[in-house]
Amino acid sequence: MTAESRRPHGKRPPARKKNIQPQPDPTRDVAFDILCGVVEHRRMLEGSLSKSATQHNAEPRDRAAAHRLAAATLRHMGTLRAVLEPFLRKEPPEPVRIALMMGCAQLLFLDAPPHAAVGTTVSLLRRRKLAPFAGLANAVLRKVADQGKTLLDGIDQERQNIPAWLWTAWNKLGKGTPRAIARELCDEAPLDLTLRPGITSPLTEMGVVLPNGSVRLPAGTRVSELPGYDEGTFWVQDAAATLPARLLNAQTGELVADLCAAPGGKTAQLAFTGATVTAVEQNTSRLNRLHENMERLACPATVIQADATTWQPDALQDAILLDAPCSATGTIRRHPDVLWVKRPQDLPALTRQQDQMLEAARTMLKPGGRLIYAVCSLQEEEGPARARAAVAMGWKPSPFTAEELSFLPEALTPEGWLRTHPGLWADKGGMDGFFAARFICPER
Ligand SMILES: C[S@@+](CC[C@H](N)C(=O)[O-])C[C@H]1O[C@@H](n2cnc3c(N)ncnc32)[C@H](O)[C@@H]1O
Fold first, then answer.
1. Do domains 26-159 and 191-440 have the same CATH topology?
2. For bias kind Basic residues, which ranges apply (predicted)?
């Protein structure tokens, strides 16, 4: 007798529905929230990270893993879209595509085991009320896992990972520059530290000392565990970010204003020269960070909350550093979200504010006083165009010299400006993109 014939009416009993309870997975939940924030709402990564981490009870370890996963997906986002394209007959809703890109990033760039990348993506979709797409995700990611890195053949990854408007704009920086920048974007940036002047530190033995004096340690190094952190013997600062304050050449006893100061790397550089430094910052939470950093470093700067477009010092200053708010496109190695959040239409408001700050700085300086205008932007509008606008306002150019930039001659432009980008020092791990120009305050 068969099992079939023993059943009444020969019918199978109805299959019992499996009650699949998706497991919590704070790492992927937080990474997914970050990516939806960037792609769908143009929200910066840092803004979503804290909120989502609290919502999903993410431990510091999960938070760090979520940051790593989201950043890897953002670095390779153009490539991931191109890889997925042939597997998708219909355009999926954007959150589904984001989950697929995350799964794909784990398979192709983070060496995750296939069962983990596929399984966690399917669970994520179920948790996010996107269960109807779980089958699609399972099928697509299995194929991606099977074919692996061969899927990258024929994709111009460098080109795909940079939005077209930025690629076009960066062509103005020189032939091959967009590609050189895109190459550096693929990997997490190393950790650069500036040492407090006059100290000896074991960090110089632990890392590589760069030609500008920064100590470079591998990406992912935990800053607070490094020797000398609590004693304030160093601060985190990209090698390129050290250049504007260095080129202001502040002297002991000079009055110096740092107009847009938080988190304070440049304030510390200026104050440790012996100059009397006033650090101005408008944003309250960034001001708190600035205070914390100055306290850890025992840095003798005076910190003031004020708007740099209207603030007036008690006495006219000898020198001013204006590290103006900008699109931050020079920092994409550390902040790949910038690529997908910023748009060309954001630039006019930024350049208006940069001009207001340049105008205001003239009223704060002694005649003959020095100004450094700097931005961590790769955009022509925020760099050279602002330097020309400054001259039109009456500022006198004071070009940087080959001697001042002897350790980085490729960053000196024919106009005597500083222009760095992530493709410089590529053999050492690159650097952030900065523009800086120096001016002298005219007689009133
Ligand atoms: C590029 S960041 C400065 C980085 C800083 N100089 C350093 O090296 O650590 C620009 C800063 O300007 C601040 N900011 C923006 N608008 C401002 C304003 N109107 N007045 C003063 N600070 C402002 C931002 O909050 C931000 O902290």
1. no
2. 8-19
pLDDT digits (tens, 9 = 90+) for 95-121: 999 999 999 999 999 999 999 999 999
pLDDT of residue 444: 79
What does the pLDDT average to over 6-11?
Answer: 46
Q: How far apart are CA 84 and CA 322, in angstroms?
A: 44
- For residue 220, count CB atoms less than 10 angstroms from its CB and return exposed for 0-12, middle for 13-18, buried for 19 or more: exposed
Q: Which atom of ligand 1 is nearest to the CA of 266?
A: 8
- Per-residue pLDDT for 52 more than 70? yes
Output the average pLDDT for the chain: 95
pTM: 0.93
| Residues facing residue 438 across a β-bridge | 372
Decide: 342 and 329 in contact? Cβ < 8 Å: yes
Catalytic option among 36, 104, 326, 376: 376
For the chain, the structural domain boundaries read 26-159, 191-440
Fold of the 191-440 domain:
Rossmann fold (3.40.50)
Answer whether residue 20 shows pLDDT above 60.
no
Q: How far is the CA of 406 from the centre of ligand 1 (A)?
A: 29
Element (H, E) at 435: strand 434-440
> Which atom number of ligand 1 is nearest to the Cα of residue 309?
19
| Of 109, 38, 104, 36, nearest in space to 72 by CA | 109
CB 58 within 8 A of CB 33: no
Distance, CA of 103 to CA of 119 (rounded, Å): 9
Confidence check: pLDDT of 339 > 50: yes
Q: HSE, CB side, 13 Å, CA atoms: give it for residue 84.
A: 28
- 376 noted as active-site residue: yes
- The tens digit of pLDDT for each residue in 371-414 reads 999 999 999 999 999 999 999 999 999 999 999 999 999 999 99
Superfamily of domain 26-159: NusB-like (1.10.940.10)
Q: DSSP E strands: which ranges in 238-356?
A: 255-258, 276-281, 302-305, 317-323
